[in-house]
Design a protein that fits this description.
Elements lengths: L2 E6 L5 H11 L2 E4 H8 L5 H10 L12 H8 L3 H29 L5 E4 L3 H5 L6 E6 L2 H12 L3 H9 L4 H7 L2 E4 L4 H16 L5
Parallel strand pairs: 1-3, 1-4, 2-3, 4-5
Helix pairs in contact: 1-10, 2-5, 3-5, 7-8
C-alpha cells in the first residue's frame, strides 16, 4: 500500500489533484477534515484548547470559534506553537488510524494524505512519495482574490504566513506545476496515477 503525501500552499491546486486521484481510485485522507474532527465539541483536544486559550474561543453551540482562535494565534509564533502542540499529535494519531483502516480494507490501495502543513509537521514520516502542487505566489494571490473573494492584502498575508514554496520543492519527489490550465494539471496528475498504478514510487 503506497502512502503518498500531497502538499502545497494555499490556492496551489492541491485539492484539484486530490480529487483527480480519488477519481482514479485513490483513498484520500484529508488532514483539514481530521483537524475539524479532532476539535469536535466534547473532544479532549477542544477542551485543551479552551483551557489554554480561554473559553471565549468556544461558541455558544460548543463548536470551536476558529476566527477567535485565529485572532489569538495569528502572528504570534509562541501561541501558534502551543496550539500546534495540542492539535498535531491528535491529528497524527487519527491519520495513522485512517491509513490503517484503508490498508485493512484494501491492502493494494493507494492512500493519499492531503496535508497543507507537511513541511511544518509531518515531513519526516515514512512517505513512499511526496507530491507538491506548485504555482507562483503571484498566481495563487490572483486565485485567492478571484475565486475566494479575499482582498489583495489579505491574500498576500495568508501566502506569507505559510512556509516558502522553495522549502516545499526541496522535499518533493514529484512537483505538479499548477500554474497552467486545469487540463494541464489533470494531465500531470493522470501521469502520476499511471506511475503509482505501475508500483513506481522511486
Amino acid at each position: 500500500m503506497p502512502l503518498i503525501a500531497l502538499t502545497g500552499g494555499i490556492a496551489s491546486g492541491k485539492s484539484t489533484i486530490a480529487a483527480r486521484l480519488a477519481e482514479h481510485g485513490a483513498v484520500v485522507v484529508d488532514a483539514d477534515r481530521i483537524v475539524r474532527d479532532v476539535q469536535a465539541p466534547g473532544s479532549p483536544v477542544l477542551d485543551r484548547i479552551a483551557a489554554e486559550f480561554g473559553e471565549d474561543v468556544i461558541r455558544a453551540d460548543g463548536e470551536l470559534d476558529r476566527a477567535a482562535l485565529g485572532a489569538r494565534v495569528f502572528g504570534d509564533a509562541e501561541a501558534l506553537g502551543r496550539l500546534n502542540a495540542i492539535v498535531h499529535p491528535a491529528v497524527k494519531a487519527e491519520s495513522q488510524r485512517r491509513f490503517a483502516a484503508a490498508r485493512d480494507a484494501d491492502p493494494a490501495a493507494v492512500v493519499v494524505y492531503d496535508v497543507p502543513l507537511l513541511v511544518e509537521a509531518r515531513v519526516d514520516d515514512p512517505w513512499d512519495l511526496i507530491v507538491v502542487a506548485d504555482a507562483p505566489a503571484a498566481e495563487r494571490e490572483e486565485r485567492l482574490v478571484r475565486e475566494r473573494g479575499l482582498d489583495r492584502a489579505e491574500a498576500r498575508k495568508r501566502i506569507a504566513s505559510q512556509v516558502s514554496d522553495e522549502k516545499r520543492r526541496e522535499i518533493a519527489d514529484v512537483v505538479i506545476d499548477t500554474a497552467g490550465s486545469l487540463d494541464d494539471t489533470l494531465r500531470q496528475t493522470d501521469g502520476l496515477w499511471r506511475r503509482l498504478s505501475a508500483g513506481e514510487t522511486a
